[in-house]
Amino acid sequence: MKNSYRIFGLAMGAVMMFCQAQAALAEDVRLSGAASVVADLVAPHQVAVEKASGIKLLVDKSNAGKGLIDLIDGKCDAAMASASLEATVKAAKSAGLVKPVPDLKMHVLATSEVVFIVHPRNTVKTLSWEQIRDIHTGKVTNWKELGGRDIPITVYTDAKASATRGLIKQVVMANSEYAPSARAVDFVKEVNDRVALDESGIGGLGRGFVDPGKVNIVDTRKIERPLGFITVGAPSVKVQKVMDAFKAASAR
Length: 252
Known about the structure:
Blueprint: H1 2-26, E1 28-34, H2 35-53, E2 56-62, H3 64-72, E3 78-81, H4 85-94, E4 104-118, H5 129-137, E5 154-157, H6 163-172, E6 183-184, H7 189-197, E7 201-206, E8 216-217, E9 223-232, H8 237-250
């Protein structure tokens, strides 16, 4: 009888341990938003962060505007953003945000760089921010005006709901509007791909999306941007735990 009780006790203990393990696995954090944050921060450290925090990450990669809308709609625990809070809110409004903006908090976890790229056969290697602004607003429309060949300039940008596009507009273009001829793509990596096929092209994107074998990076002033999460109010305990793990992982 004692052996039976002992076996029963061991079995119950195993069941409880299994249930606890399942409960731990069931805890997750939903992230939605900027592809740049996924590429430069989340993807490189996801395994380490999940191991350190004990929390599973459910990642929806799109753009910062959509991510912020998902956050406000309660579809994620944190929105991923690769620009200032101001630029991200503007991106969300471009993506169709109509609800009132709640008390949002931006948590910067790392930084990265935005660069401008041209086709390898483009002889223009250096541009000032003023020249980049004039290109993107349509004031300068031909590469010969900048010492290049006599071909029209084609501007490629990330999606209108992208924080990268908003950052360029805010920091480099001094909030001037993009020319109507600027071509917005669906995904940021497409900026690299389009410019690689178009001798007239130029585009701004995160350095992590640049394929140096297909395009050239223009020499200009450095454009640093934040990579982080946005929460409504203070982050929850589990989101804070994940953020702490990302900070530790990216600092190594």
